[in-house]
Amino acid sequence: MNLLDLFARKTKLPEPGTALPGRAAPITRPGAHFVNGRAIAGPYPEGIETAVFGLGCFWGAERMFWQADGVYATAVGYAGGETPNPTYDEVCSGLTGHNEVVLVAYDPKRISYEGLLKIFFEGHNPTQGMRQGNDVGTQYRSGIYVANAAERQQAEAARNAYEAALGKRGFGAITTEIVDRPTFYFAEDYHQQYLAKNPNGYCGLGGTGVSCPIGTGVAAA
């Protein structure tokens, strides 16, 4: 297989019915957050809400969110594909359709959903399609997975604002998918808070350098 064929295979989502079969049981039972000791799978305290984002390699993406004031806990996992309870190797094969994503549990009294969107859009390049920097594949696509109409409205407004700002800087159109939140599958334990466990580990993220206020009261991460 030549490089062009390999690139095409890794950047094309599998057709329905062709994804790997997966398994009935979860591959892991997540424990405590390595950084703050909180239960990453919940139950969360009253008032804590959750959001899901995909922005390239989930190691670096998760760190951006756990460092934000108002974020209660984070976890990495897989979402947006066909294969139930996939493994990391299966996701990397490109045959599950899943994206590497971050689950963010946050206190909306301390950080708004718009604030999370600001971290998301300014923490990666959302114009690259099925890749992020040197990481190529469907699991590195930019995605916002919304739980309700209000989140969709805010996500679409943020996308439009950042697309206008990026266009002035010579970037192409934003390729971020904004879809209803699919099933979230927790990744293996060694991926959770990876960069806290491995401070010199691979991050893989690079922003565009564009800061864009998308609403009132939105603080930068």
Automatic annotation (TrEMBL):
Alphabetized UniProt keyword annotations: Oxidoreductase
Catalytic activity: [thioredoxin]-disulfide + L-methionine + H2O = L-methionine (S)-S-oxide + [thioredoxin]-dithiol; L-methionyl-[protein] + [thioredoxin]-disulfide + H2O = L-methionyl-(S)-S-oxide-[protein] + [thioredoxin]-dithiol
Keyword Oxidoreductase among UniProt keywords: yes
Catalytic class of the enzyme: oxidoreductase
Keyword Glycoprotein: no
Pfam families named among the record's database cross-references: PMSR
Residues covered by the Peptide methionine sulphoxide reductase MsrA domain: 50-203
MF terms in GO: peptide-methionine (S)-S-oxide reductase activity
E.C. numbers: 1.8.4.11
SUPFAM superfamilies: Peptide methionine sulfoxide reductase
InterPro entries reported for this sequence: Met_Sox_Rdtase_MsrA_dom, Met_Sox_Rdtase_MsrA_sf, MsrA_MetSO_reductase
Active site: 57
Family in the record: Belongs to the MsrA Met sulfoxide reductase family.
Physiological role: Has an important function as a repair enzyme for proteins that have been inactivated by oxidation. Catalyzes the reversible oxidation-reduction of methionine sulfoxide in proteins to methionine.
Name this protein carries in UniProt: Peptide methionine sulfoxide reductase MsrA
Record organism: Kaistia dalseonensis
Upper lineage: Bacteria, Pseudomonadati, Pseudomonadota, Alphaproteobacteria, Hyphomicrobiales
